[in-house]
Amino acid sequence: MGTCRPVTLATFRWSMEARLCQGWAHSAHPQGLALIELGLHATVNVLLWGFYKVHPALLCRGKFLPKTPQLSSDRMHIKTILNRIEKQPGFIYDTCKWRDSGPPALVITLRPQAGSKPICSKCGQRGPGYDTLRVRTFAFVPLWGIAVFFLYAPRRVQCPTCGVKVEKLPWAVGKSHLTLSYAWFLATWCKRLSWKEVAEIFETSWDTVFRSVEMAVNWGLAHRDIDGATAIGTDEICWRKRKDKFITLVYQLDQGKRRLLWIGPDRTAKTFREFFDWLGTARSRQLRFICSDMWKPYLSVIAERAAGAVNILDRFHIMSHMSKAIDEVRADETKELKKKGKEPLLTKSRWCLLKRPENLTEKQVDRLKDLLACNLRTVRATCSRKIFNVSGATVPRLGLASSLMPGAQEPCDPKSNR
What we know:
The chain contains 15 helices and 13 strands. By secondary structure, it is an alpha+beta fold. The N and C termini lie far apart (85 Å).
């Protein structure tokens, strides 16, 4: 870890101010840096005072800021702070040193309490010590933007049940070089920023951020309670542009508890059955509502594994299928009119029928009024689509044209619209 020297909160603060003064003195006065290196901080402050108009930020110490009374109760060790916020049961913070070589960092060594026996990392029982391994480094949450590392030589325990095992450490899990506090710190920031940005801001690697998120996800999966889920929804997404590009997602949609439950590869019936196998028979019977699109593998598995639940179809996919059906009816009816030698009323009328009324242009509005006056299958299908989009109910026998455009003339006797 390089050359280290003891540090307290007061010396740490002075070291940071000295580093800032080095940069400011170098830019303000050519001799300032040399004076600081000689330890003549007071002389440097006098030199800097003459350049405050050029560098207003040179308010660092001495005459530039009021001195804080240096009382004996004023000094607080870094170890005191750690014992307040990150106390390690069975272990003691031994030394806290400042690493001079390389990037700024605090190096904190730990040692076991006298007479404490190590804990087996497998079964959790205490046992006699066997030997001590080499010193390991653990990254901790940065303090004031300065990297912090724990140094500790793990012991091996002679467990009567499991044999010789490495002891359990309260600040880390397994062979991870991250402390649990630092891993949760990075995972929390990943809720707001991308993994790459988190790695750049806290000067760590992308892999470190990934492992932190993986730890948080695994912890959430182990402590998740899915009992009482009565409403779920499923859909597929395309996540890459090559083979096996789809994945199946299942969400819980209960009021007050909406979350992602399960992810599976591909969008086949086999994949969806794996979800119900994971959910279990008892929980599957508790489901009351399942929302899905009209993908046939999903519909068949829902009917097979959750027959007692109401299958609610996604409105978006229903409207999409209805729009395609209307376009097919329009194309067929246009061909029939041409064969009979009648005027092709439906030519170039596709978007008049498929667009929302509020998105129609003036020409399309006039054209749609002319079409609504004719008793065509395409017009009746369009009115049915409009009514379903508004209410989701069955198509009424009266007022089809007026539902599509207020004030429009009905095509003919409503009995013919059945």
